[in-house]
Amino acid sequence: METNSLDSVDIAILMPLQRNGELTNKEIAVKIYKSVATIHERVRRLKEQGYIVKTVTILDLRKINKSSIAYSHVLLNDHAADTLDTFEQEVVKFHKSWNVTK
Questions:
Q1: CB atoms within 10 A of CB 43
Q2: How far apart are CA 52 and CA 18, in angstroms?
Q3: For residue 38, what are the contacts with CB-CB under 8 A and spacing of at least 6?
Q4: Does residue 70 sit within a domain?
Q5: Do residues 5 and 49 lie in contact, with contact meaning Cβ atoms separated by under 8 Å?
Q6: How far apart are CA 6 and CA 1, in angstroms?
Q7: Is 83 a domain residue?
């Protein structure tokens, strides 16, 4: 197989992995009717070639009593009071817990 090209088996491996990164090689092998050794080798190669960048775990922040924090940088055309008031009124529509500072 040519380096850095995906065939149908690679795609068949990536599809379930994208939905659930915790799948074992055995579980993938059963799903796509290939041997565990084949899956192992292909997953290793897909990682080496950068198709699989990393595996992450998504936490339920409510259960661990954490909230998400996002920072953003906004440039306004001017800093007149009415411009700032309009901006603040629009930003708070995105999420009820925004904290907007001037």
A1: 19
A2: 9
A3: 9, 29
A4: no
A5: no
A6: 9
A7: no
Output Rg (C-alpha) for the chain, integer angstroms.
23
CA 70, chain centre distance (Å): 16
Identify which of 51, 56, 46, 49 has the alpha carbon closest to the alpha carbon of residue 20.
56
Q: Which residue has the tokens 């599809």?
A: 15
Does 101 reside within a domain?
no
pLDDT digits (tens, 9 = 90+) for 20-73: 999 999 999 999 999 999 999 999 999 999 999 998 888 787 787 776 666 777
0.70 surpassed by pTM: no
- Residues 101 and 13: their CA atoms lie apart, in Å, by 47
The answer to whether the beta carbons of residues 33 and 16 sit under 8 Å apart is: no
